[in-house]
Specification:
about 100 residues; mainly alpha; 6 helices
């Protein structure tokens, strides 16, 4: 398969395009994103030297991880300790500092 002339000069871009095509990732379109949110994301991307898309994906991935917390806690073995005991121990350790 012959590549267009401009594609031959950009092997890294071609590699990235092929990787994305092969990753079988879903696409998410966001509507009604407030301007100030986009502005902050753009500033983050510029400061870090990465794309707005990369910043948005990273931030969404981080924010969405909390949904797994309940399943993680449920998977832990039961402990014979109450919330009051936990808070009491926490207060004691803080007062020792």
């Amino acid at each position: 398969m012959a590549l267009p002339r401009d594609r031959r000069r950009e092997p890294l871009l071609l590699d990235a395009c092929l990787m994305l095509a092969l990753c079988n990732m879903r696409t998410l379109y966001l509507r009604n994103v407030p301007d100030e949110v986009v502005d902050r994301l753009e500033r983050m991307a510029k400061r870090q030297g990465i794309s707005l898309n990369a910043v948005a994906i990273r931030e969404l991935a981080e924010a969405s991880r909390v949904v797994d917390n309940a399943a993680l806690l449920e998977s832990l073995p039961p402990r014979d300790i109450t919330m009051a005991q936990i808070l009491e121990n926490l207060d004691e350790s803080r007062s020792e500092r």
